[in-house]
């Protein structure tokens, strides 16, 4: 089996799949890519990208699990997601006539069902099931090695941001707005990963999604194009209350998740505010305000910034993007698609790259970002 890893390493170009499921519980993303080199010599080409939506019963099982149902269900859900992730990998393979065993490597993030800053983290989607179904070597469970070294296990994508998006011309902030929002500062001319500043800024669209679902009695699961928010009025006094959450003042390294800004936070809003378009507009503005505040507190004092590059589902909400632009009028905000990095596929591509780094024994955490004591090689290998 070691020979197989060495054989994959020796290939000038490796055919890989990156798998990802975000906190929004939309489904499984699969990116089919070619990767050559590693570390600073990494080159990646996206061949295809698909998303396999979670059926409603699967989404409900995940939500039940996250909200504290028994451990038997946890074990079953782990294998269920393993099958769903394998389905996504197999579908993108079939679209390109690839048979079992023809993919060199799969990097699977799994789905985070719990994440406690610098203590523990749990991702589901059993990698043995993925390996059995696809015939590929699978590298998964990336976060826990960093946590074992004293880090938070998140965020991990900033390493990939550094490899793919550093620039001698522009100072950049890469901002992902998924269920949770996270940012990476890439100063102009950055040449060492140790100089990165990256962290979770707070909620992305997770709270808004929950409110939209309640507002539409389940008819909608997110605010398409920000239409509901656009019809409402933002209440600044509500924003000021919500922004008092201690997470926002805490300096990086830091990470957050559904535990802070999930159903508990949304249910508190539903209990204390009217459920209408105003609430959805103000919650959407809350995401923009916490992102902008994080920049002012922790990023902009460190380096000049020319571009803010958005990715993730929230980047497709014009109301949210407009709010962010109003709060940061001096900065050029653009989509990651405009710099050659497909917004929808970015995170799945990232875990293919992280798996490639593991293949070469290359540490891919960033201690300055996660708080780990030292760099470590991430993930577990299933042959």
Q: Overview of this structure, please?
A:
Strands 1, 2, 3, 4, 5, 6 and 12 form a seven-stranded mixed beta sheet that branches. By secondary structure, the protein is an alpha/beta fold. It is 40% helix and 21% strand. It contains 15 helices and twelve strands. The chain folds into two domains: 2-154 and 343-382, Nucleotidyltransferase, domain 5 (2-Layer Sandwich); 166-339, ATPase, nucleotide binding domain (Nucleotidyltransferase, domain 5). The protein is globular and about 60 Å long. It starts with a helix and ends with a strand. 51% of the residues are buried. The model has no long low-confidence stretch (mean pLDDT 95). Strand 2 and strand 3 form a beta hairpin.
Keywords:
383 residues; alpha/beta; Nucleotidyltransferase, domain 5; 2 domains; seven-stranded mixed β-sheet; five-stranded mixed β-sheet; 15 helices; 21% strand
